[in-house]
Amino acid sequence: MAYSRFSRTDSVLFDNNETYGRWASPITNNIYKNLTVISVGAQYAGRPDLIANELYGDSSLDWVLIAVNNAADALNWPSAGSTIKVPIRSIITSELL
User: Fold this and answer.
1) In this structure, are residues 12 and 3 in contact, taking their beta carbons and an 8 Å threshold?
2) Could you tell me the end-to-end alpha-carbon distance of the chain, in angstroms, rounded to an integer?
3) DSSP β-bridge partners for residue 37
4) d(CA 96, CA 83)
5) Cis? peptide before 78, omega within 30° of 0
6) What is the rounded CA–CA span in Å between residue 41 and residue 51?
7) Residue 44 has pLDDT above 70, yes or no
8) Residue closest to 32 by CA, chosen among 89, 85, 90
9) For a tag site, which of 15, 28, 52, 93 has the least CB within 10 Å?
């Protein structure tokens, strides 16, 4: 099952439509305390989805990497040879899934 970053956000009824209102990041202090750093290979340049799939077995968790690294340009992030912060798999499993 793909994880939705909105699953922990309370729903709001607006104009008779249920919506999730303003998004609150589920990235916790525990996640930030359990980061490691990796170097991005050329095959992963601009592809956080491939990195998430390699690390967590789920490409839909690419948003976690983008959020933890405060990537301003997610369409071209990360560049080959750069280093990025990644939460360890066990923390992602316990905190988000």
Assistant:
1) no
2) 9
3) 85
4) 23
5) yes
6) 10
7) yes
8) 85
9) 15
